[in-house]
Design brief:
The chain has helices at residues 4-21, 67-73, 104-110, 125-135, 142-152, 156-159, 172-185, 202-215, 228-234, 257-262, 267-273, and strands spanning 27-38, 41-52, 56-60, 84-92, 95-96, 111-114, 190-194, 220-224, 237-243, 249-256. It is α/β, with parallel strands linked by helices. The strands form two sheets. Strands 6-7-8-3-9-10 form a six-stranded mixed β-sheet, sandwiched between helices. The termini are far apart. The protein binds adenosine-5'-diphosphate and magnesium ion. Adenosine-5'-diphosphate is lined by residues 38, 43, 63-69, 81, 249.
């Protein structure tokens, strides 16, 4: 019998082929009427958001408006938080990732995540990539996978002679690129990044931004950033969130980044991007 996770991967791959061959906009993932609660508190209210494939979508807004909560909905990370509860649907190739027959482990492989603080394992650079791949059942040539992943993450040239060195000896920017390499190695479709540069210096930040543009050829990227210049530089689309009168996070406006930053439609967006609020 086909296992839960095989079925989910099959659905993902099948519909992927169909949508890629059509001329309509190819959405990688879509939120429908999503609400997230922490106990009785509604942290995110009625979010509807369609994310275009192989583009970079930025989620911006003041601290506490629910950016991290929203991005965690895309790969079921909120359910690791006790008391967190979601209503609504998150459709990945038309399949709700919260359906009971979907395996969250497969969701998190296909929809990977990079965090604010680089979190390599306290192992060698090589093992940081090989370990996750092995757990996910990779049986190909491991040296090749490690090299390919490090190249894609723009780190290979800096570490190729030190693959067996401890990853924690790398600089912060290198560690973050290693975490990106580790995410890529399990062949996701979507990469989620929650403030991936906030612990990095400006040069390391620009390297990650360049890398994101490269990766958007093959992957769909969703990035949370509190840095508006970063959203403006790197993203194709921007979603602006704020809090309503109940302190719930709401999406105010969503559109092409250029439009959001030059011709915002909502006064709250304008106040935020011009620095009057937040
Ligand atoms: N684990 C949690 N338990 C209870 N409340 C939480 C938890 N995480 C976040 N919140 C609350 O949910 C709201 C949104 O938080 P968050 O998604 O972290 O916002 P942002 O990333 O935009 O700063 C805030 O009011 C925050 O206090
Ligand atoms: Mg956050």
């Amino acid at each position: 019998m086909e296992s839960k996770s095989d079925a989910f991967v099959r659905i993902a791959t099948q519909t992927h082929t169909t949508s890629a061959s059509s001329s309509v906009v190819d959405y990688a993932i879509e939120m429908r009427n999503v609400n997230v609660y922490y106990g009785a508190f509604r942290a995110v209210k009625d979010v509807n958001l369609q994310i275009e494939a192989r583009k970079i979508t930025a989620i911006i807004g003041p601290s506490g408006c629910g950016k991290s909560t929203v991005i965690r909905c895309f790969n079921r990370m909120n359910e690791l938080i006790p008391g967190a509860r979601l209503t609504g649907e998150v459709l990945f190739h038309g399949k709700n990732i919260y359906d009971p027959d979907v395996d969250p482990v497969q969701v998190r492989r296909l929809i990977g995540m990079v965090f604010q603080k680089p979190n390599p394992f306290p192992k060698s650079i090589y093992e940081n990539i090989a370990w996750g791949a092995r757990i996910n059942g990779y049986r190909g040539n491991m040296d090749e996978l490690v090299e390919e992943s490090l190249r894609q993450a723009a780190l290979w040239d800096e570490v190729k002679d030190d693959l067996h060195k401890n990853a924690l000896a790398l600089s912060g920017g290198q560690q973050q690129r290693l975490c990106i390499a580790r995410t890529i190695a399990v062949k996701p479709e979507i990469i989620l990044m929650d403030e991936p540069c906030s612990a990095l210096d400006p040069i390391a930040t620009l390297k990650i931004e360049d890398l994101m543009r490269e990766l958007a050829r093959d992957y769909t990227i969703i990035i949370v950033t509190h840095n508006m210049q970063q959203a403006a530089r790197v993203s194709d689309y921007t979603a602006f969130f704020t809090v309503d009168e109940d302190r719930a996070g709401v999406m105010v406006e969503y559109g092409p980044t250029n439009q959001i930053f030059t011709r915002p439609r909502d006064r709250r967006t304008e106040d935020y991007i011009t620095g009057r609020f937040g």
